[in-house]
Amino acid sequence: MRNIINFIFIFIIAFFCTVTQANTIPTIENNEDLIKIIAQLSNKNSELKNRLNWQKEQLDHITTNQNTILAQISHVQNTLVTLDEQGEWLSFSTALGETLRLQLLNLPEKPKPQAIDADIAEAKVQQLNDNNFLKQLEQYSNLANSKLDNRKINEYRQLLREQRDLLKTLMSGYDTIILELTKLKIANSQLISAIDSVNDAAHRYFFWVADVNPISTSFLIDLAKDTAYTLFSVDTLSQIYNASLDIIKSPLILFLLLAAFAVYIDFKAKPKYNQYLEKTALRVGKVTQDSFSLTIKVVIYSLLMALPIPILWAIIGYLMQANWQYPAVVALGYGVNAAAPILWGFIISAYLASPKGLFIAHFGWTAQQVRSAMKYYQLSVWVVIPLVMIVMSFEQYNNRQFAATIGRFGFILLCFALVFMTNAIHRAGVPLYIDKRGSGDNLLSRILWLIILSAPWIAIIATCFGYLSTAQVLLGRLEASVTTWFALLVIYFLIRRWMWIQKRRIEFDRAKQRRIDRLAQRAKSEDEHTTSVNNQDAIDEPVIDLDVISAQSLQLVRSIIAMIALISMILLWSELHSAFAFMDNIKLWRTKAIINGTEVEQYISLSSLFIAILVLMITIQLVKNLPALLELGILQHLDLTPGTGYAISTVSKYIILMVGCMIAFSFVGIDWAKIQWLIAALGVGLGFGLQEIFANFISGLIMLFEKPVRIGDTVTIRDLTGTITKINTRATTIVDWDRKEIVMPNKAFITEQLVNWSLSDAITRIVLTIPATIEANTQLVMDILLKVAKQSEYVLNDPEPQVFLVDIQEGIQLFELRMFASEMSHRMPLRSEIQQLIIKEYRQHDLVLPFPPLQTNLESCGRKTGRRTYTVGTI
Q1: Are 269 and 369 within one domain?
Q2: How many domains does the chain have?
Q3: H helices within 87-149, ranges in order?
Q4: What would the DSSP string read from start to end of 614-679?
Q5: CATH classification of the domain holding 729
Q6: DSSP code of 315?
Q7: Which segments does the entry list as coiled coil (predicted)?
C-alpha cells in the first residue's frame, strides 16, 4: 500500500512539473536575449553542482549508516551464536549468566522508524524532474547561421553541454541513492530480525535460570554495604540535587508547574465531587429518577479526579530520565515512571470505593465489604509505590549492580505487601468469576484466588533461590492480568446495572399501563366507584430480582468479557512465549503426516496439546454463546423471522463446532486425511443402524428452515397439546398444560398431522354450547349471551362474538356462543368468566338450565353430520 501511495505521489509531482515547465523554451532574437539566457544557464549549472555535492554527502551518510548497521548485525549475530553455545551451561554458573546478561545489555537498540520510503520517493521525484529538464534542453535553439556574437554563442553552447552532463550525472546519482537506500532498509529489517532472535534466545535460556546467587547468611551484611555505598559513595544525593537544579532551569519546568497546578485544582474540586456523589446516591434505586448516565458520570469524574497526581508523577519521572549525565537520577526516573500507572490505579480504586461512590451506591456492594477490601489502602500507597520505584530503579542502574541486594530486598518486601493486600481483598468476598447464577462462589473463582494468593509466596521463594528476574517478570505479568481482570469485572457490573435499570423501567411502565387499563375497565363497568378507586390505588415501584434480569443477555456479557479477558491474557503473556519454548521439547507421542506426497514422522509436544485444549475451550465458549451473540450483534438488525434467525444460529453452531474440533485435532496429529475414511465408514454404518436418529436429525434441519413450528408456538400433535420450548436437531421439547416436558422426535412433526394454533395468527375461536328450556324467550337468551360476551375482557371485538340457535332436542333449546381470543393462554380464563356471567344472568332473569345444565363445545369446525349429539362434558 505504501509503494502504491508513493507511486501516485511521484506521478502527480511529475505531471505538475511537466505542465509547469511546458512552453518555457526561451526565444533568442538579439544579443540581449542571449545574455539573459546565458545568465540563467549559468545559475542553473551552479545549482546543479551544489546538488551534486549534496548527493555525495548523502551517499556518504547512507554508506556510513549501512556500515554501522552491518557492524551491529554482526555483533548481534555473534551474541546469538554465543548464547546458543553457552546456553546449556547457564544453569551451572551464575557468573556465566551475568557475563552473558552484560553482553545483552550492550546490544544495540532496534532501529527507529526512518523515512526511508519517503526519501526514495523524493529521489524518484527529483530524478523525474531532471529528466524533464534534460528533455527541455533538447528543444533549445543551437543558434546556427545566426548574426549574434560568436563568443556568446560558444559560451551558450558550452553551458548547454555542461548542463546536460550535470543532469545525467545527477540522474545516475539518484539511481545510486535509491539503490543504497533500499540496501539500508533491508539492513534495518535484518537488524530488527537479529535483535528479535537474540531476545527470544535470551528468554529461552535465561528465563528459567537463576540470575543472582541464592540468599546466604551474608545477605544482610551485603545489603547494608550496598545501601551505604549507594547513598554516600556513589553520591546519589548530590546527583539528585544537581539534577533538580537542571530541571528548574529547563524550559520543561513549565509542564511540571502546569501539572502541579492541576493537582491544586483537583484538591479544590474534591468537595464538589463529594457533593455530587451524595446528590447522585440519593437518586440511585428510584425508578423514576435513576439513570445509567449517573453511573457513567461518576466513573468519568472519578477517573479525571484521580488523574492529576499520576500525571505530575510521570512528568517528574520523565524530567529525571532526561538528565542522562546523572545515572542514579536516570534510574530513579525510570522507577518513578514505572510506578505512575500503579499509583493511578490505586487512586481510582479509592475514589470508586468512597461511601457514596460507584461500588457502594451504584453497584450495591456492602460498605463493610468495600472497607474490608480497602483495608490496606494506605499500605499500598505509602509502601507499594516506593518499593516498586526501588525495584525498577535498581533494575536499570549500572547494569543491575545492586539488583541482587537492594533490588532483591525491595522485591521481597513488595511481595509481602501484596500478600496483605490480596488477603484483604479475598476476605472481603470480591469475586473473580461470576457464574450464570450470578454467584461469585464457584470453582473457577476459587482456583483464580488460589493462584493470586500463592503467587507472592512463590515469588519470594524463587527470589531467595536466585530467580529474581523470573519472579519479577511472572509476578508483574500476573498482577497486570489481575488488574485487567478486575477492570473487566467492573465493566460487567456496569453493564449489569444498565440492564437492571432498563428492566425496572420496563416493569414500571407495564405496571402503570396495567393500572390504567384496570381503572378504565372499572370505569366502564362501575362509574360510581371511579373516585374511590382513584383514591385507593397508588403506583408502586416494582422490585426486581437482579438474578432474573435478562439471564441470556447477562450470560452473553459474561462470555464476551471472558473472551476479552482471554485475549488480554494472551497479549500480556505473548512476550514470554519463547520462555515457555521448553514445552516443545517435551514429546508426548509420535504421529505420521503426509507432506508433499511424502510420509514424514512428527512428534506431538506438550505445547501442541495445550494449544489444542485452548482451541477446544474457545470453540465451546463460541458454541454455547453464539445464539445470543448473533442475535445481539447481527440478527436483530436484519429483517428475519424468529425461525430463520434460530436456524442460522443452530447451523452456525454446528459449523463452528466441526471447524474447531478439526483444528484442535490437527494439533495433536489427528487431521482430516486420517479420519475421513473412518467417518465415511461410520456414516454408512450409522445410516443403517441409526436410521431413526438420522431421520430425526434431517427432520430437525427441515424444521429449522421450513419453520412449521417455532419456539413459543402452541401445537397439537397426536393427543398432545402444549407449547414449544426447545427445538434441537434430534427432538423438540413441548410443555403441556400440566407443565410436563415431553420430548417429541422431530420426525413426528414432519411426517404426521400437526396443528399449530399460532403459526401465522394467534387468534383462536371458542364455541360454547348453552342450553335453555323450550319455554324460555329465545331472543332474550341470545341478548344475554351477547351481553356477557361483550362484558368479558378476554373476548375480542374484532371478529365480534356471535350467537345462534343451533338445535332443539327433547324440549331443550341449544345455543352456540362463538367468540375469539387473542392467544391460547386466554382460552381457559375466557371460558370460566363467560360461564360465570351466564349463570349470573340466568338467575337474574329467572331462566332455568335444563338437564344437562351446561354443555360446551371447543370444536371450531362445522358439524360432521346433519345432527349434532350433545352429551355431558362434551368438548
Answers
A1: yes
A2: 5
A3: 94-105, 116-137
A4: HHHHHHHHHHHHHHHHHHHHTGGGS---HHHHHHHHHHHHHHHHHHHHHHHHHHTT--HHHHHHHH
A5: 2.30.30.60
A6: H
A7: 31-58
